[in-house]
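Protocol step 4 of 6: structure prediction from sequence.
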Amino acid sequence: MKQGLSLRVSQHLALTPQLQQSIRLLQLSTLELSQEVEQMLDENPFLELTQDEAPREEFGLTQADTPVSEGEREMEYAPNSVADYADSTGASGQKDEDVTPLTGADEPSWDGDGTTELVPDDGEWGTDAKARANNLGDGNDTDATELARSQESLQSHLHRQALSLRLSETDANALRFLIESLNSDGYLEDPLEDLARGLAGSDEEQVDDLVHHFTVALGLLHSLEPAGVGARDLGECLRLQLRAKMDDVLNPPGAEAAVLLALALRICAQPMELLARRDVKTLVQRCGGTDAHTREAIALIARLEPKPGRRFVDVERNIVVPDVLVLPAGNTRVGATPQFRVMLNPDVMPKLRVHDIYANVLRNHRGGGKDSASYAGLQQRLQEARWFIKNIQQRFDTILRVSTAIVERQKSFFTHGELAMRPLVLREIADELGLHESTISRVTTAKYMATPFGTFELKYFFGSGLGTESGGNASSTAVRALIKQFISAESNAKPLSDNQISEMLKEQGIECARRTVAKYREGLKIAPASLRKAL
């Protein structure tokens, strides 16, 4: 190998820590931003929450509305990390093929211009939002997250019922084991023999003994609430619930309700495919009921719970808090054009400021000698706090700008509802605000807007367009709403097929193929016509 020197011209783009943080904060949801603020408050002594009103730093919407240069647009398209950016620049249209990430000489620095001089009041870095409690209260407030997680589990519910049964120690242990073997839906998936072999191994005598105790315990489990728990399959689950209803029937055995329940039990003993297809003719032949009684029995079965453990599932409950509020404003007279006011939700905006006492101490104490390293570290922390506050302010300013543009474009929705939604793509908002599409995408992800028709994610207001006979476009959201309206008004005896809905849309002047109707219907979680047909 021969060593030598050579000259090479290349373009180098390094993302500063400030820009990386700005991009990351922009794409965070409200909950994630709250966690980020709490973490920063714990790590940075120069950052604090305040209840006092503080003037904004001269950065807000006035500056945000200034034209954006092409260079800054390219910077907005920066990915989440420097490494990702280096991977993406190959297709970004740059002439140079070598784009290097930050090197050791480009270590993150929050030094800014290197000064620690304070502005007349460091409170100018604060935002004008109400401060969060941040768990700093007197401890009497109830945490909503803890309340959501306090739901009783299925196993706990069953164990509590088992305590009221007078069982031997062996049977109680067998019942406890079966309860712990249930899945989240309340089904016992493993056969009793497999459960016994998992405990006894190859000892056949002990396996038989365990199977006997498990069989007794299974009968006890089937008697517990909710009805149907401990079933091995769907058919057994439905039969257990029907038997529980049968026990509750107070009329004589020959009463109509008892006859209907008996017929439903016979239907549930048949293959579930017949019930799923609602094959009334075959079920009448196999179960011996009349056509009318069979349909009534199927309707009764349809009201049963196929997953007994559903209501005990400990799902994570996320309360959606809107980032933006849209309120009626302006002239409200009949016939006047409705006006709307767009504002940020003050409850989601952390009110931060630089800690005055610590910042003044740092300004008055010039480190030297042995203290120079500590002084430089504290100065970097101070600059980091300032940039963090500024980036949060910029985040909310950008969200407000994008939301205002969306409301302006979708005024018909805020007046008439989703049927009046217009086609809208990210590029339209990006071009209007002078931002990059990636910035609009980050802003509209996991951010919510409270409207007169409910709370929606900002992405909800974007949708492709379908051609119309007049040459215009209809929003896919409006088409979905129209399909939902058609199906809600259909006859239960003769539900509309996808092809019929497609023809009805054509009568409205909207070109929508049958397969597109099927895709929209599935997206709305609406069953096909064969399953919507009333019995």
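Step 5 (inspection) to follow. The chain has three domains: 12-89+117-131+321-418+444-458, 154-312, 465-532.
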